[in-house]
Design brief:
single chain; 305 residues; alpha+beta; Enolase-like, domain 1; 2 domains; 6-stranded antiparallel beta sheet; 5-stranded antiparallel beta sheet; 33% strand; globular
Length: 305
Amino acid sequence: MKKENLVLVLMFGLMLLLSVIALSFDYLFPTSTVDKMFGQNVNVVNERPVIDPEFNQIFAQAEVTTLDGTKIADLYTVRVDHTYFYLELYVGIDLDGNVYARDKFVNPKDDTSSSYFPLVREYLLKNYNGLYYENVQFIDGAAGATTIIVSRSIIKSAVSQAVVFHVGVAEDYIETLFNSNYELNDETENDNVTAYDVRVDGVEYTVYKATGSGTYYDFTSTSEGEITIYIAVDSSGEITHTLIPESVYQHSGGSFYTATNNFLSGVIGLNINDPMPDSTTGPTANSDGSQYLVNRLLQDIQGVA
């Protein structure tokens, strides 16, 4: 064999060997974001859009299978468009109900948000890496600087929405309000206020739910969003329980949500006909504020109580 032909054969053999090694690497080692989410090479199949106004942060769903076709999880793609960044997340829920989340695409809207995003990714890896879905509600989103607080809070909200969509049963906020089962006797709706007559452990209560929209300022811009509140009133008119569901809270989250929730809980022990506490944070030149909206909702409840 001529020297030139021998070189060609050797080069072809080397290229073939490198191709086999590359294919083996792709097969044996996780490479894509979804691969790394589940710690193995997987296929994403049966991709389809999600068009549901109740779950407007979810825009796609699919199934995750092993390379031999065995299903191991459902995969949701959710989006968050906020003051600090536009973010698309993969949210995977395996057959045991464990939740995983990884960033698919992120577009920070300023240099500060860009510099903070590694901390957001660390938050994802630490908290959404095989957590059982019922424990998502206990994740703390209230630590860190303003950008991180809001980022963690809205990520938790988006992941929670995917969990509710997956499980198919929405959280019962009245059950959460009492941390107990209850019997529903009657329900009355009046504009933005709904009254529920319930019995909990043999005790009668009226639970009021009120929803309204108002402006808030997140130290960057003024936005508008909804808040829903629940209060329970016993037969003497005393307010005994309060709740602001975080999963449907559309103002700034984290410690801001906590402060608003604490403001509402301050009415516990008051009579439903007593003057409600005034907002201490607004209105300001930038916005009315979350406490102002909560005060307004309490007055809406008083109007029908």
